[in-house]
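Figure S7 source data.
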Amino acid sequence: MRRRYTSGRLIERDLAPDPFDEFRAWLHDAVTKGLAEPNAMVLGTAGADGRPSSRTVLLKGIDDGAFVFFTNTGSRKATEIAANPQVSLCFPWIAMERQVLVCGVASTVSRDATLAYWLTRPRESQIGAWASHQSTVIGTRDDIEASAAAVGERYPDEVPLPDFWSGYRVVPDTVEFWQGGVARLHDRLRYRRGGGGADDAWVVERLAP
Ligand SMILES: Cc1cc2nc3c(=O)[nH]c(=O)nc-3n(C[C@H](O)[C@H](O)[C@H](O)COP(=O)(O)O)c2cc1C
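Tokens for the predicted flavin mononucleotide complex:
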């Protein structure tokens, strides 16, 4: 199970000044390398009780300094975000010996932005969102399929946007780029808000591997 990481090096002078520009370049690399689900990210949340939980969601956009995903507002993750908006994201690009780690604050996007994305979803995905009270305990597989069939009959044409479904935006305060290195001397470069000034510029720091 032990592999040597030899893919590349990460040097300060090669980084873009803005972490989103650097992230776009890395996402582009993951797409062009043919990684499965390159926009999948592991979202970590912790609710009022402080117990962490994580799950995979899909990055659906980068909008005005935020990472955006969509989900059910009654789900476990959404309930935890409502109680505590501090979240983490992990892009596990293992096949490229890379990961990107984000810490930040989550909030819902506007209804207009949610609707704009909703309208791009395939009908079956729209029906699936209506049919599932995400994260609740259900009986059998038949129950959820019957629920989806009923939604399909209720909305034979357009499927409206459910009021329990929304986009979320994560505004980062740190974004770490990790590149595996030889002899476990990995490169870790972390952008952190804190340069001061009107725009509170990003500072890049190297972390011990
Ligand atoms: C590759 C992949 C992508 C997923 N994308 C989403 C997504 O974008 N939104 C979502 O709500 N769930 C997505 N899921 C399902 C979630 O991982 C999770 O099961 C669901 O959101 C319920 O999570 P919760 O009970 O912790 O709220 C995805 C799962 C996988 C494996």
